[in-house]
Amino acid sequence: MKWSKGTAERVRVLVLSGNLGDGHRQAAKALAEASRLGTREAVDTEVVDFMQRVYPQLQHVVKYGFLKMVEKTPSIYGYLYHRTKYDEGLSPLFSLFLRLGRRALMRLAAEYRPDAIICTFPLAAAAVSLLKEEGRLHVPLITVITDHTDHALWLNPATDLYLVGSEQVASALRARGIASSRVAVSGIPVAPRFHAEEDRTVVRQQLGLQPDMPVVLVMGGGGGLLSEGIRSLLRSEAVCAGMQLVIVCGSNRAVMRELEEELAHRPSGRVRLLGFAEDIHRWMSAADLLLTKPGGLTTSEAVAKALPMLLYKPIPGQEEDNAAVLMRAGVAVQAEGGRALTDQLLELVHDPARLAHMRGRAEAFRIARPAERAWEALQPRPQPELSMSKAR
Q1: pTM of the model
Q2: I want to staple 198 with a disulfide (CB 3.0 to 4.6 A). Which of 33, 192, 285, 293 is the partner?
Q3: What is the pLDDT of residues 94-115, one digit of tens each?
Q4: Residues 44, 49, 51: CA angle, nearest 5 degrees
């Protein structure tokens, strides 16, 4: 990428994230952390929540509506997702929504005066692209796709470069007519700490876990995971007696309270409940298996840690796409709806050969240092026609 200021001065990069799911924020934080590593061109990064700054009055309504639709009517969400996956151009309603935030986004750009804008949130990428198309903004736009899929919502005419998680996504973008010069396979950005090698026995001792008993980490994204399936694990004597469960509830205090009440009736010293965990990379290092929904960031962190996954109830749409990619890669299996989750979990945990095979597949599938590779993809390239200021 050819920065507008050249290499003699520091470059200002605005990273726009969003609050519809924790993955967009985590990817933005990973990019910001990676920008401070190494001796590459000096970069000052600022991470901003697009929804909070551009739609302060609407953000809570939009987030509530999105989460409720996913929770209560996932089939409708899935229908809308697939219906719009290959849409060309903006719908009138979506275009109106973006235009409502135009002035606030221009104020944000004027405040930070960025030399480039990176978006880990599709609505932010669409809004920046619209301003560029209208001639109101003249900086490179880089879109980081945080799922293993190519939904049209991520794709916008004024995007200069797409950073994608796999060659499969890159091929899908090229099939849509996007030039190879505008696509780079960097991996989905995860914090550099997820690539650190850690001794499992030592980490388990430091976290207060028994070193010689299997550890299953349960995650459901930033909002936490609670369902009859998870309750069934807590009610299973075979599960609670035969392994250590670490359940991450995220920032959802209601989930934490409900699980605490569940455990009050079935006390077990082998079940740990966590809220939002900054050291989740250490819990992944300690675990034998991750039970999770297939969000792009959580699963990418697990792949970086070569942690086998059991995928549970993917949301129709991008989570189903993610699950398909991960299963084809051999790094995950998906829980079958017709079988008890406890049976499938016990089957995997007590099959060390299969878990070892999945770890090996994860090591082959993962892309080393994805957040740092993202910055490397943005460095000046020798061919002038690939300059970000000229790419279209």
Answers
A1: 0.88
A2: 285
A3: 888 888 999 999 999 999 999 9
A4: 145
